[in-house]
Fold each of these.
Amino acid sequence: MIIDDLKSENGHLMIGGVDSVELAKKYGTPLYVFDISQVRSQIRKFKSAFEKNNLKYQISYASKAFAVKAIYQVMKQEDVHIDVVSGGELYTALSAGFPSEKISFHGNNKSYDELLMAVKEHVGVIMLDNFHEIDLLSQILKQEKATTKVMLRLTPGISAHTHKYDQTGQTDSKFGFDVESGQADKAMKSVLDDENMELTGIHAHIGSQIFGTQGFVMLAKKMMEIAKKFQAEFNYWPKVINLGGGFGISYNEDDDPITADEFIGQIADELKKTNNEVPEIWIEPGRSIVGPAGYTLYTVGSRKDIPNLTSYLSVDGGMGDNIRPALYQAKYEAVIANKMDQPNEQTVHIAGKYCESGDILIDQQQLPKTKPGDILAMLDTGAYGYSMAMNYNRNPRPAVVFVEDGQDKLVVKRETYQDLTSLDLDY
């Protein structure tokens, strides 16, 4: 998000028509705030791009980015699919009333209990990731006298130009059936021979926080080539080709994300080169849907000034509510929410309160003059913030608030100290 695009009134940052400073007073800090109108807008941009290019499609929200009941209810309202990667995410989605037939179940080591749950809840499609999973699911389907739709997750040998831990499509990956070595052919035969599995398509995901279109175009081309190979060898043509997600967002001025129109337009051009029928195309955006819609509000506390060095400005949260800077060296930007009309006068390290020297949320941030009690708003924190939050140092996880059309609503309560000990037993 570009700071110049932020909206303010009377010197206060406005989020979804609501004063962020008042949100901090009402709900306390740290506080996750989501502008739901931005979430809806991004979904509709993806849909519009597909429709402009006359492609059959599904948008499947990658809910690992942010998984709570309220966001699943928004996805239901927007009539999209979702993908889950654990029994916990599946349970949350079902608890929110999300229709099971619009759920895809991902993961590289789904347990027996998770697969059984997926079968019993009639999940729309199970993404098969390895041979153990094929055997386990086959066993469950026979036991339950059930059938299910499946897709094969493939590793097509395409690397994305992102952080090494965000690359998932190359051959050396823990995910999926390798195409080059023949694993994908073996998996295809195994699934087609199982009368309880309906193979609906093939899937690949090349990484996360990707800015260029080249990787996606290469993936579309490769997946069509694989589909033609499967047609020749197994007389199978996929109903669906799932191209995964990974569309980058702008965390700071160095990031230059592609638009939905750009990448879907170029994918469509590649797909339409085939003489075959183009399958229904699925994508799995997560970060790009919720990331820019999220803000984290903190209260400024202590400060450490060191001669000839950058000062440390501490806030009342940190790596427990946003691990990405420590884990990925992810870069963010922030503003002082109650001083939007004041010029920047200093550059500081934004430090968290956790007992780790690496708990630095932002390494170098320009800000107006600050004092304890000011409200710092960290931008673009909607993805992989709450979903990766933890109780390190026995700090409670923050509350989550949705704002839309000038209204605010608490959707996740702040944890209490009592919550922290609720599962502890005496010795």
Note: The first helix runs from residue 20 to 27.
Amino acid sequence: MNEQLEQQRPVSCSGCGAKLQTEDRDRPGYLPESAYNREPVVCQRCFRIKNYNEASSVSVDQDEFLRLLSGIGEKNALVVHIVDLFDFEGSLISGLQRFVGSNPVILAVNKCDLLPKVTNWNKLRNWVQQRSKELGLKTEEVVLCSAKRGQGFDRLLDSVSSLRGRRDVFVVGATNVGKSTLINRLISDYSDLEQELTTSRYPGTTLDSVKIPLDDGHFIIDTPGIVYPWRYSELVERRDLDAVMPAKPLKPAAYQLNAGQTLFFGGLGRFDFVQGEHQSFTCYISGSLNIHRTKLERADELYRNHLGEMLSPPAKEDADKLPAWQRHEFRIARGSRSDVFVSGLGWIKINGTEGAVVAVHAPRGVKVLVRPSLI
């Protein structure tokens, strides 16, 4: 009898088309076992949009996401790309331009509330525009915002209104960048979901994307969050996410270092000042992560003996779950204003102008690079 019931169950969400599953609430198509009694049978994300005007995040891997993106360039669409300012290079969708074609792109830069209040916002916007261009993304508009505090959303909605015309709106972004908050705001401003979704079956469409109807017959298309394996947020244990993802404004931590000194960021990463004149380095990382200074010659021994204790997170039982560390060495040119960026962990600003040789140790696969200073 159970086998017969199992065979009668729908295999796909009637809202978004995702394959239904009851194991992982963070993946497309999740619904609780008891929800199979509903009619129509929809996944939890579609159910929350329909009943609560609220979207929740689901995620897919990079290959699946690129498959979902294919074809946008052939449509008449407006693309809203949400990135995390704290993890700008790690959350920007590389190669997005070749998928969107000539369609306009609004770059919504979220989590701006994390920066110090003295930040020059015009310079920050110019930095984002220049950095996006260097990374191959052409933007029609850059909007600095904070999903958590609701800052900048009116301007973002104005930009969507002025650029949308008779277009559908595709919202794209990596995981943990605040995409759901933006989708929920768009829903409340543009769509009478209560009326639309109770008079017809849920109008979601294909494979893991959700179509949210607008009043003019067009749609907001909510795409799943893309999982980028080079970000710390995808590597650490769930209980350690708060340690790497700041919830409060960053408090810059400045260190005067001599060559031959090292900074540990908990047990998750390490910064070595290898060569150069005595100078200052400013760390922009989560305030929940302890920074420990030591001599470079003692760093390897300290890591072996104190990982999971003085150097934590990760906890000792989780240390072996992370990839082995890889060393990245950089020569900082004299007179340059540079950050050493570590995706999902933050960045170290090189304050001196004398030049330096520095190195970062991070789990293999984490994106580490030198960029023009953000602040």
Note: Residues 1-6, 193-207 have pLDDT under 50 and may be disordered.
Amino acid sequence: MVIGSGFSGLAAAIKMAEQGRTDFVVIERGADVGGTWRDNTYPGAACDVPSHLYSYSFELNPGWTRSFSQQGEIQTYLQGVAHKHGVLDRHRFSTEVTSARWDEATGTWDVQTTGGAYRARVVISAVGALCEPRLPDIPGIESFGGTVFHSARWDHEAELAGARVAVIGTGASAIQIVPAIAEQVERLDVYQRTAPWLLPRNDRAYTALERTAFRRVPGFQRLSRALIYGARELQVLALAKHPELTRLLQLVAAKKIRDEVADPALRAKVTPSWRIGCKRMLISNAWYPALQRPNVELVTDPIAEIRPNAVVTADGTVREVDALVVATGFQVTDSPAYEVITGADGRTLAQTWRESGMQAYKGASVAGFPNMFFLVGPNTGLGHSSMVYMIESQVGYVLDALKTLDERRLATVEVRREAMDTYNAELQRKLARTVWTTGGCGSWYLDAHGNNTTLWPDFTFAFRRATRHFDIDAYRTSPRVAPRTTREGASA
């Protein structure tokens, strides 16, 4: 069973089908494939990884229209890939997993869903890190009488034209939303807790000649992809290996502020106090110009409360609004999805990670959870390149695990706790010297224990190398038990 059908779950389904596996089902709570690209339909939604790198290596798309794809184009791509590879009949859409519990007696997962119950020998969790919106804990927000919604659940029925709108947050979604709606609203208040560092967005439309070359010139698209990949990998030298090199990136970002923001007071507001790369680096050419529009105000005073028709900041200022857009990110290290998975010792995944910290072995396996694998699990995130590369690496690892289960006739595999602990100790040692730890910020990369449980602290090809084969020596295994037979030869 695969839970979720975004980039990772869809890749797992396709690769299992290619291996001739038919005994699997994909449970997807949405009505279509796509995951975050299905759900995030807010104005201006686009990817910050170049198009040719943000696609499956086994299904390149010569038809990308821009160097950085927009949401709709990525979703169309995923729908097309799912249709082409014939895996849609293995999906159960509009179905949500309500519990997954390991049954020691049967050596299977008892999975309850809104569409019925399943018994699964192996469960692959592909729910993704950016699937559960994080709502801010602000006094009075439940009393707001106007339109209110999270950026990942955009209300397309809401009439924002001519309205007074407040956007809470200045992260990756907000810097796309604000420029997209600033022209149509009467007034736009943008509430910032921490200023982000921005780099130029080198986005452009591909010419007809380029698109023809991608389609018809052998190797041209793969060469373009390889060059993009290599350039992105160089950032690891600054982010993870030698954080002092981030000063070069920061000089570019600081110059961008000087060149694009004329007002000294606003310039001070948008200049971060931490080193670039510590939080997610954002790319935009429209953010600073949008903040300087006469109908836009960047508010840096903390929000004290929300009233039925207004937002009140700590300095006592009351700003009346008609609509409230919450762009406060996602529950990455404390996703509700972890609450419904119960392992061999009776503890949920959420309880396990609250006690020991969010960790896994190669982002794929957790001690105490036999025959369960994770895609986009702990410490597989990136601060520089395409998650699709990491996803394909993990899918290869998990499929090799399934092959090993079959070839060795194993009933269960469960990562050894000592192997997981050793692996994570080394990860945290590497992470300690990265800009994400030394850059002077707090971020959603960190869990409640202060550990970076989100990012991979090395080159992506190093992760590919580490996951190339399923290393069964790191796992406890149990053999399949042949059924007892009666004298007549029937199973007992």
Note: The domain at 2-132+331-479 is CATH 3.50.50.60 (FAD/NAD(P)-binding domain).
